[in-house]
Design a protein that fits this description.
Elements: E1 3-6, E2 11-16, H1 27-33, E3 37-42, H2 59-74, E4 79-84, H3 86-97, E5 102-108, H4 114-119, H5 123-130, H6 132-139, H7 143-154, H8 165-173, H9 176-180, H10 182-185, E6 205-210, H11 216-224, E7 230-235, H12 242-245, H13 247-260
Parallel strand pairs: 2-3, 2-4, 4-5, 5-6, 6-7
Antiparallel strand pairs: 1-3
Helix pairs in contact: 1-13, 2-3, 6-7, 7-8
Length: 261
């Protein structure tokens, strides 16, 4: 596992990046926060400089265990946690499963679809329809086409053909990570939807969304309905990649939560 540290504040925080990203994606947010915190970020399995997932068990369990290992190294409980997309689902899981270790939890568009699927039976078929190109490419073993489709759904920066070739290769080489995520994100492999578990996460929580994102608001709403102490905010002119494209706006929203925790 590879991790990085940004900032020099006396308050430690853990940051967990999105699928196909890396720990360095948090630099802009850390810079925007100045000396408020020291941000500890790690590369997820198959990402950045961390090793590849060995395929044993459930990948989300491995990603969560890595986060706990970073928290052990920080050796200060409780701490603040922020996550983006897939990383936000790990942050949420930490808050539910290890509430005594989490001072506050901030989540930018967690892609934990299981609560919304439980609340709205029409969402699952719509999600399957909208991601059909990705699934077809994955089934065909065409990882480049799958990465292109994934970027078309979740990316809000340059078009695929305008992304540098090295970055496109990085994304295609790691696209299986997205498929391996489904057991938790869609099927709730950790059983977080078991009645009463969300109540454990009573610390201050923040759900952030970009106004330009496709599914963020209903997914955030489904999660918020279950959390006992949560605020929500929507950032105008921001898409799914907000922590990278608009780090100042995300930092401003997170700072309000930090002041409450």
């Amino acid at each position: 596992m590879h991790n990085r540290t940004f900032g020099s504040g006396s308050r430690p925080a853990l940051a967990i990046h999105c699928s196909l990203g890396h720990a360095g994606a948090w630099r802009g947010l850390a810079d925007a926060l100045g000396d408020q915190i020291t941000l500890h970020a790690y590369d997820l399995p198959n990402h950045g400089k961390s090793g590849d997932w060995d395929g044993q068990g459930i990948m989300h369990d491995t990603a969560t265990a890595m986060a706990l290992a970073v928290m052990d190294d920080i050796d200060t409980d409780p701490i603040d946690i922020i996550g983006h997309s897939f990383g936000a689902t790990v942050a949420l899981r930490l808050a539910i499963e290890h509430p005594a270790r989490v001072r506050s939890v901030a989540m930018f568009e967690p892609v934990y679809f299981a609560p919304l699927m439980a609340d709205d039976p029409t969402f699952g078929p719509r999600y399957k329809h909208d991601t059909a190109d990705f699934d077809a490419a994955m089934d065909a073993g065409d990882h480049t086409a799958a990465a292109r489709a994934f970027n078309g759904t979740w990316g809000d920066g340059p078009a695929w053909d305008d992304i540098p070739p090295q970055t496109r290769t990085y994304m295609a080489d790691r696209i299986m990570f997205v498929r391996h995520s489904g057991s938790f994100l869609i099927e709730d492999s950790a059983g977080l939807l078991t009645p009463g578990l969300f109540d454990r996460a009573a610390m201050p929580a923040l759900l952030m969304a970009g106004a330009l994102s496709q599914w963020a608001l209903p997914v955030n709403d489904a999660i918020a309905r279950r959390l006992p102490n949560v605020a929500q905010t929507t950032l105008d002119g921001v898409g799914h990649m907000g922590p990278i494209t608009h780090p100042g706006a995300v930092a401003h929203a997170w700072s309000k939560l930090l002041n409450l925790a």
